[in-house]
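Lab notebook, bench 4. The sequencing result for the construct came back, and we need a structural model before the next group meeting so we can plan mutations. Quick request posted to the team channel:

Model the 3D structure of this chain.
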Amino acid sequence: MQMVDQTCSLSTDEARFDAARLMLTGWAAEVPEGLIRKSLVIDRLLDLRAELGDEPLLKIEIDEQLSAVPGQTVVEPAWWLNTVAALTEVLNARVDSVRSGGLTPEEVD
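Done. Here's the predicted structure in token form:
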């Protein structure tokens, strides 16, 4: 029975990771040439945080990015691209860790 639970958990994690990866890939492809509304950046980071809600290591990284969003009302596209790239890197590292039997979210808490 435990084998089934681990398989189910892994497929659930994979689905969440895939959804998050699609979000990040889409955002990287849609960066406008001009300034980006700060509220849009924050909304997207919060959406990503909600998608990865039970991944504390990823939530910490997203929270750090949320606290570092520059500007009063707009954000430079370069900052957003760097943030998306950094989050993609952290997500990929977490996916690799899960696939190789790394810490589960419950073990991190």
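The chain has one domain: 15-108.
Will bring this to the meeting.
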